[in-house]
């Protein structure tokens, strides 16, 4: 049976989340939730409960790392569902906090343009964040929130795949998550995520056929996303169609 939660850390941090008096930034980014730090590179990694693994996922949408907004959303979900089982609470975190905010609209527009929803048998890719949530694993190559100089880490500075602090998360936590979802199509969002995923392909930890190349990061701050998407649209559309011919629902 597929393990659907990585609960060791959640058991450690759940009570701390529930004991918080509020969810102000300084409470979230405190020593109580610090997982790793590189003082020289000014990088901090904090805990957030993004640990649910969906065993039925047919597609993986992979970002860089959860930001502060998603971190706060995840804590809110745990507090709202304090009487639920660990698996129920962690599943709710994934649904509520993953790619939330304005980024979701841009993401859905591009996914629908690639006809992903048709291959999944749903009306729109927006349903992946609601009624069709069972078909997707929303995740990040750095699964826990990373901050550089106190700000959301953007995946490029410092270089993600050359930073030693990140290695256990990219080649460990994320690679193990993808291994559990062995036939799911992987959509890396943006060039930095793509580079991290290709590193795993080069090391034999991922099958190249699963990885759709050329999908831009859907952030509104990515001024090149429309051009990059247009340049890669047809190739991505073919790749997705071919994948689902080999792995029909």
Automatic annotation (TrEMBL):
Under InterPro entries, the record lists: Uracil-DNA_glycosylase-like_sf
UniProt protein name: Uracil DNA glycosylase superfamily protein
Q: Highest taxon of the source?
A: Bacteria
Q: Which organism is it from?
A: Exiguobacterium marinum
